[in-house]
Amino acid sequence: xxVGTASVTAAVLLLVLPHVAFAKVSAQEAAKLGKELTPMxxxxxxxxxxxxPEWKPAAQRGSLTGEFSTNPEIDGEKPLxxxxxxxxxxxxxxxxxxHKHLFELYPxxxxxxxxxxxxxxxxxxxxxxxxxxxxxxxxxxxxVLTNATLGFPFPIPKSxxxxxxxxxxxxxxxxxxxxxxxxxxQPSGEYVLTKIVEEAKFYYGAIKNPVQxxxxxxxxxxxxxxxxxxxxxxxxxxxxxxxxxxxxxxxSPGIKRIRRAPTVCCDNPYEGTDxxxxxxxVAMFNGTLERYDWKLLGKREMYIxxxxxxxxxxxxxxxxxxxxxxxxxxxPRYELHRIWVVEGDLRPGTNHTFNRRVFYVDEDSxxxxxxxxxxxxxxxxxxxxxxLQIGYNVLSAGTSPEVIYHFDSGRYFITAMANEDKxxxxxxxxxxxxxxxxxxxxxxxx
Length: 446
Prior knowledge:
The chain is mainly beta. The protein has a domain of 264 residues. It is built from seven helices and 19 strands. Strands 6, 7, 8, 9, 10, 11, 12, 13, 14, 15, 16, 17, 18 and 19 form a 14-stranded antiparallel sheet that branches. It has a three-stranded antiparallel sheet with strand order 1-4-5, with no helix packed on it. Strands 2-3 form a two-stranded antiparallel sheet. Strand 17 and strand 18 form a beta hairpin. It is globular, with a radius of gyration of 22 Å.
């Protein structure tokens, strides 16, 4: 039987579509960057009613050796208003489903909303690289990035996967050492504390010698070691994040040996979290994109946790954060910002605890600041909230703390806390050998 040309063409397209290269905007579109768009790709102007201001990039200040982020310009500000269950109807259009669900569950839940500011900025080299990437960066499928270096690969995104890649590759210095303290909080407010130190060397994001993205290229190397409680102390994870893949190793003091850890991925529980955090929830989201079909749903003006130097600083104790049922809502600062909305739907033939995920991504920092996670029945299973703070000493932005609400158990999980320890140290430098599995046992911390 003869097959028509149109049928053959369609079949070929179906076979190659997962590997087609996407993105690259025209030179005409890219010319908007640094003009009506910021160099990162966000809208430079504020909104029509002035509740979202024009971009006002911060200048670099402070020491890289480790200091808690502060901004005297906003420290004395008072809330404009407080959202409660009683007045929720006035503000509901600017809230995500996770926040609305928390209001429904807990009468004590509230959100203090402050004046909005847009101080997020990045080093000149990162901004210039971002503009250059706009006309060169491409995705092959969703997990292989090519022709991008140092900056955000997709400042003018055309797909949901591109926005997620911007989050994954946001600049954070050449190397870091940080405390990542974590708490499992019971509905009563009682908690168990885990202390972790994380170290990372950034290859794609290194200003001096950035690695160009490409199949198999190393993007980040990470070491994570648990210090407490005693039953977990000494657990060490090393991961090499590559373009399109991840290699990982685990050292457990209980069995005193190093093993490859292919489970350091996706919805496998992170070591020591009692199942409260999956590996791909670390830093709001990381790792492979291939299990989901990603849709870019556009932008919304939303109230999100922002300019969070107070809640992540050393004037707040761990016990101050943990309240019954939810985070101590006297501490977060919420602001109105423009947010990209990305939806991920589980692809047929793959598996994950979350059948659907909705990410809310800040337009200036490209940081995921909230995630709604739905189960196979379409019910909101978990809600993850990141409190965005600006690192003025390195010119970057990230989320600290991050909170995961488990609606099935009533417990919640707080991670990325450094409050009672040292702040992030951006001055560290690591040799490549520091992140090799051969030295894991010898690297047990004092």
